Amino acid sequence: xxxxxxxxxxxxxxxRELDLATRWVAKALxxxxxxxPNFSCCGSGFVDEANLTLNVAINARNLGxxxxxxxxxxxxxxxxxxxxxxxNHRLEDPAMRARVDPALAKIGVPYRGTVKxxxxxxxxxxxxxxxxxxxxxxxxxxxxxxxAFYGCHLLRPGAEAGFDSPEEPHTFxxxxxxxxxxxxxxxxxxxxxxxxxxxxxxxxxxxxxxRQIADAKDHGAHAMATPCPLCHISLDSFQNKAQAVVGRxxxxxxxxLPQLVALAFGATPDEIGLSRHLVPTxxxxxxxxxxxxxxxxx
Length: 298
What we know:
Blueprint: E1 2-6, H1 16-29, E2 32-35, H2 46-50, H3 52-68, E3 73-75, H4 78-90, H5 94-107, E4 117-119, H6 120-136, E5 145-148, H7 158-161, H8 171-178, E6 182-183, H9 202-218, E7 223-226, H10 229-237, H11 239-246, E8 254-256, H12 257-265, H13 282-285
Parallel strand pairs: 1-2, 1-3, 3-4, 5-6, 5-7, 7-8
Helix pairs in contact: 1-12, 3-4, 3-5, 6-8, 9-11
């Protein structure tokens, strides 16, 4: 499988462990990640609110670059997935096309609307397939209860995202089962992490994150996993502030989706950057059946 790799901003900087794990999983599964250094930021929802046309044009350019190479786009961020997918949908409007096409013509990157945007979760569960994923597992994550945290943009708006049910998704849980972990069902898994207002109303944002973490913990989760690095920032990097706001200890390790897959495939904690997490992942890894050989050192 050959696909244009759109890592987004966070995976290239503060969340480099997400990029490491993605590359590890891609290599293990024979996925060729084609890189385009001239991809730009997706706008992360902020440009979208300030100037809709500009945001669509930015993402149409990204899609046009991949389209010129004849490739679909792989994302590892729910927000990037949402912005790129929404751009595809918004460009079905002739009025929007009339505003965006002239801007793209000036930079020589036409948009034709032939590119599909796929999150890594979709690639693993649909393109590669759960049977193939399961066959690659060398270290089943038996004994580890994981609360999937989908985030907002992967599921909503439902009609445009077209990925899974916005209210009762199952794709992430299906993947967790395939790698041997036990999925934990809890309501907060489809809620917001609070990131969109983290730097505007931090107490409110941290309360939102704290509630979701507490919900997963109260339902028996040993760890959480997310397909979005922005959610990871809220749930992991700001967890100390979240627990102060909600008034209870949380101590919840939070994995990036490809990190758990890589661990099940046989990666070491160092290979996928687990030491970069603020909440230590060692206690979660220590719960994996000893025969599976997981290292609790991260």
